[in-house]
Amino acid sequence: MTTTPLAPSAGATTSSDGPPSGSRRARRVRRLGPRDITVLAVLLGAALVLDLALVWGPTVASITLSFTDWNGISDLRWVGTENYQDIVSTYPPFQRAVRNNVLWLAFLALVATPLGLLFAVLLDREIRFTRFYQSAFYLPVVLSLAIVGFIAQLVYARDYGALNALLGRENNPIDWLGDPDINIWAVLGAAGWRHVGYVMILYLAGLKAVDPSLKEAAAIDGASEVQTFFRVTLPTMRPINIIVLVITVIEGLRAFDIVYAINNGRNGLELLSVLVTENIVGEASRIGFGSALAVILLVIALGFIVTYLVQILREDRR
Amino acid sequence: MSPFPSSRFPHPHPHPTQFGVPVLSRRGLLRGAAVGTGALGLSGLLSACGERPADENTVTFGSNQSDPVPREALAQVVATFEEESDLTVEVNTVDHNTFQENINRYLQGTPDDVFTWFAGYRMQFFAAQGLLTPISDVWEDIGDQYSDAMRDQSTGEDGEQYFVPFYYYPWAMFYRPSVWAERGYTPPTTFDEYIALCDRMRADGLVPIAFGNEDGWPAMGTFDYLNMRINGYEFHAALMRGEESWEDPAVREVFATWAELLPYCQEGANGRIWQDAAQALVNGEAGMYLLGMFVGQQFPDDQRDDLDFFPFPEINPEHGQGAVEAPIDGFLISAEARNVDGAKELLRFLASAEAQELYLASDPNNIAANSTADTSNYSAMQNKAVELVSNATHISQFMDRDTRPDFASTVMIPSLQQFINDPSDIDGLLRQIEEQKQSIFDDE
Questions:
Q1: Overall average pLDDT of the A46-60 stretch
Q2: A-chain residues within 8 Å CB-CB of B20?
Q3: Of A105, A191, B63, B427, which sits most exposed with the smallest number of CB within 10 A?
Q4: Residue pair B87/B59 in contact by the 8 Å Cβ criterion
Q5: CATH of B58-169+327-396, one of 1.10.3470.10, 3.40.190.10, 2.130.10.10, 3.40.50.150
Q6: Which chain B residues touch A74 with a CB distance below 8 Å?
């Protein structure tokens, strides 16, 4: 590293006021031999091509298709923003889907995630049977959400479900999954059951890594346990917090399998992802209309991603 | 403000992804990337060699009969055909639902010569897009073995025939004769008698009408029958083709009548699959059930004989009980077929009474479409179904086969579920349906 012949001290330049950054840049470029450049070009190029082909290509295609009424067979016909107008004005499942996606996100962020954090803090105190509790809470995370959907059906089913039997309501059963006013809550319960375990295990790992001397120092300074947690422990776990936040948002937007397993995401369980699938996949083939729904979902997701990136970049710049 | 601005400094504790997840080495990553790009290149190659050479002695046959019983039954039919002709049939069986969901891509890719599909609008839609081969010459040979209703359902909008019917299964009100004999019920023929029977059943502690609509399509059968009984088949067919308005008072009348019936139906239908509703009938908890003849699959073998049906009762005397909902399954030839002559020969065989009898011997929940098929081995219920359909003035195919598939699945399923949840706002519901219908149908 230090044997480069172009080190500034050995440079032929005599001008002391020459821009130092220039010579530094030149040195950096020179360090990349032709072989390095080839390797870089190939690796970056491959990544770029894959990214363009697999991510941005389909994205642009979706956006383009969303302004047509293509059904997969016919010729492309431009319909302008008609699909978007129809979605907002004459497609009742859309409003229910947006409401459910917002509920989903809010429930995971405000109920399931804090609950996971609480469990992690409790388990971190090495209470008795802590390993047992850990496995019990973590178990649902191993299950796919589709499986959670099937389990939810066994628990919530109106006629033979376990919950109505437990509540002693065999004669006047509650229709947990069929009643569109309550089924989203029943499903959120099941989805939250899984999310709590996921968040708990992440925070448990984070808590184990917090330097105990920080807590000691806070205690010596006279901080109460609650103060120590909120002012010392939680800020120390910032990377974990960000990961949990990202996971929560992703889970909220990509929610699909559990409602699809329960009733194909209809009758009160509409989600944007389900509407996209229902219109595009399947015999319906309203590809233009479904693409418009997908673009709306993309815009919402981009909103979160851009906010997150701006936050991260601002942190880095500081 | 936190007294420990730790976030700007590197953390001593590990990144969460390091728990349990093996950390990839750079070499491993590179190897993975190479395999990944290799796979991509390979899939490109594979899609490039999709063209199969035409072989005069082979007919390819795409089948959606993925359940063991019908699959085996169809295999026997095909084996018999191979014996009787000098053709080989290559059967590609695909899961029933997957086949249906991918039909558009299937027909535009490299479809098989012959494939299983449904009669009516659902077939005419593909014919109109030029994805099917017309088979009017086959119909010149087989036409005299089929009723006019069958011919109508096999004909495209251009007047050519495209479809060979194989079997059908009527929809009707199913009940258990033993339960009815015990309580002295008799099949109603008019709507008033039907309501009176429902009241009697309820007084006897039965759920009058079993109902399960979690999948969304079973409720379509109730709508179809109510509409055909109240407004007649012609109106129903025009409504399905998008030619009548859903805000027409005639449609309103259908939903108002349905709202009268709903209190007699099993509660919580949108949370129950049809199989569970059928169990209510099997267990004698429910008095009757409007479903297709496949309801028999839910009956244990030794109780199959304890199942009977009556036609949906008359509501408007002008239209009587003449229209019957009887979906027909059968076969088509794709436009891309390589061996059209062989495919037509296969269709001629599948259209024969012999082939259909052979098939039904192992799948007795259907009726042969060929009217010359031998019915001596039919069960009492199959014979009754033959009589019902042969006396029908009109045969409908079921809502999701009589109208555009996109309208049926993305508009009617949610709308009917909404109606079952809250039957009070019929006008608002019909306005929603009509608005969506216009945006879907206007692209033709």
A1: 93
A2: none
A3: B427
A4: yes
A5: 3.40.190.10
A6: 129, 443
